[in-house]
Amino acid sequence: MPNFKVWQDSLRDHGWIEGKNLIVDYRSAEGHAARVAPLANELVALKPDVLVGPSAPEALALKSATASIPIVFAAVADPVRLGLVQSLSHPGGNITGLASIVPGNIVSKRIQILREIVPAASKIAILVNPSNADHGLFVAEELPETTRKLGVTFQVLEATTVEELDIAFTSAAAQHADAIIPLGSELTVNNVARVTALAAEHRLPAVYVFRLFAINGGLVSYGADITDLLRRAGDYVDKILKGTKPADLPVEQPTKFDLVINLKAAKALGLEIPASLLARADEVIE
Fold first, then answer.
1. Paired sense of beta strands 153-158 and 123-128, if any
2. 63, 119, 120, 256: most buried, per Cβ within 10 A?
3. pTM score over 0.85
4. Interatomic CA distance for residues 118 and 217, integer angstroms
5. Model confidence over 226-263: pLDDT tens digits?
6. How many other CB atoms sit within 10 Å of the CB of residue 68?
7. CATH code of the domain occupying 4-101+226-248
8. Where are the beta strands (DSSP E) in the chain?
9. Cα–Cα distance between 42 and 51 in angstroms, integer?
10. Where are the domains of the chain?
11. Model confidence over 71-96: pLDDT tens digits?
12. At a CB cut-off of 8 Å and minimum separation 6, what does 118 contact?
């Protein structure tokens, strides 16, 4: 994972150095949802001091594999609704970490940003990963409300593999979507260049979750800083290794949301970014 170095650096800042006073066993499902649970069981069998599952699928798999080994997650949209923790302030079990959104319809904020750039956008494709429980909650609960509130129609597209990403973007273009919102997941984050290239190729204006996408050719991103979340996940691991129980570490929500606009991508799509939006941007890529 391109961002994983941030997490390793965070641990190093706390004095944990791999090969010296820290052993890390890595596993990757490489985008295959069916492999997450067996890999979680494999890691639990090693009886480590702490387990790290970055997003919802890994965190849920680890939680069902052990009720005693501490677990840290780095970017889960709604850990309470997913049943990972009892509440943000009192996680209550052997798992804690960082929420990647603050409840309050962050997707509708993305759509509003999109409509400032493409005012006529009324049919929007949403790219979800069905193996991500956060996405399932969003489609079932937040999407109908957003549809009512903003009067847009949504086309939900699914992708769990790299090949399915290609199919999803082709389908969005074929069904004349005005724009696309790819939700953040391990699949999109690990294939960031592929995702932004597909949006460009199919001429679909896209709003992404993480800055990572905008700096890799994506049009615009609005959301928590993933590198900040991973850095803070390192702080949790440090506290647990020093003896703090996960139940005593409240789940933190993001404190920083970045709006990043890529003018080069806008120009390629023939889009004019309004001055009012540029003025609100945290970063503008020329």
1. parallel
2. 63
3. no
4. 18
5. 888 889 999 999 999 999 999 999 999 988 789 999 99
6. 8
7. 3.40.50.2300
8. 51-52, 71-76, 95-99, 123-128, 153-158, 179-182, 207-208, 220-224, 257-262, 283-285
9. 11
10. 4-101+226-248, 106-224+257-285
11. 999 989 889 988 999 999 999 999 99
12. 178, 179, 205, 271
Strand, coil or helix: what is 131?
coil
Task: Locate 245 and state its tokens.
Answer: 């129980």
Token pair 């150095």 is found at 17
- Secondary structure, 3-state, 157-212: EECCCHHHHHHHHHHHHHCCCCEEEECCCHHHHHCHHHHHHHHHHCCCCEEECCHH
What six digits make up the tokens of 7?
Answer: 């997490």
CA atoms within 13 A on the CB side of 93: 22
Look at the domain 106-224+257-285 and name its fold: Rossmann fold (3.40.50)
Structure token digits, residue 209: 């979750």
